[in-house]
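Final report, Chapter 2: Outcomes

The project's central promise was a pipeline that accepts a single protein chain and returns its three-dimensional structure in a standardized token representation, suitable for archiving and comparison. That pipeline is now operational. To close this chapter, we reproduce one record exactly as it appears in the project archive, with the input sequence first and the structure output second.
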Amino acid sequence: MYYSGLGAVTPLATVTVRTRVDGQLMSVRYREGDTIHEGDLLAEIDDGPYQAALTQAEGQLIRDQAALENARIDLVRYQQLVPQKAIPEQQLATQQATVHQDEGVVKLDQGQIQGAKVNLAYCRISAPVTGRVGLRLVDPGNIVQASDTNGLVVITQMDPISAIFTISEDQLQVVLKKMAAGQTLEVDAFDRDAKTKLAQGSLTTLDNQIDPTTGTLKLRATFQNAKGTLFPNQFVNARMLVQEKRGVTLVSTAAVQRNSQATYVYVVKTDSTVTVRPIIIGTTEGDDSEVTSGLVPGEVIVMTGVDKLQEGTKVKAQIPAAKVPAKPPASPAVGPTVSPAATPSAKKTGQA
């Protein structure tokens, strides 16, 4: 049993790489469309101004450290003179405050050095995630600023990748019970025509609220995408396997007939006549339907040409898996004749 929903491929991470410092873009170290890894160097910005700022901060630190050292020496001297009443105690207190002030200045200089080193490191821009880079947004030689909104390049994580699709709120409780029991629900991604299977993954998570306008809930499934068959924003048909039934009777959906009173099939009896048999249909998936009551495996049912039949019509059934008789029967069949190229045709019910 599958729950199907329309969805779109959504990357697990999409990052717009921006500069964090202002300056001239000196070089770009990637090619458009490349798959890059986290930590790879992407671009370099002119670091001359930031290297100069670091040198200035280091020089200022040396000067202030010397002033702090001198203030400490004076403090030790004053501490020795105060007991001797050689200097007033006020002078000692002032010198202690001077030492604390110089310590604060040295601390400030150390912070400025750290800031200068950070800005210098920001001149080399590395990839924050592993993924595929898009088209270059800025060419080398341009002046880039931290306030630029477009960024330098966009990186999209391709493997693994996810797809967000929807299911009806009526189907939610079944999914919740499966997830609460710790079961992993398989999800297949098909193309727009729902004919070609693109990838197989598993359900990862559910959204936290139902859309009241559509009565649907969004789900995210994650897929391994080493071959790149799934592409961001690609439309997909998602099929989520929620249950497997075993030991059930299956018939071709084409053989099932319906009217206003019942659901039925034409069963071919041993005397080659047909009879109308009411059935109860359970799950229908693709070309197969589950019959919960009315048929047993091995019975022959009519698939096509039922408009020519009525109760008791005699037919010559041609089953696709069976061999065609070498000689026709001695007595001619009454009613529609069944042959490999004609209708109606018949098929045995199967058991899965």
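Archive annotation: The chain has three helices and 23 strands.
This record, like all others produced under the grant, will remain available to the consortium after the project formally closes.
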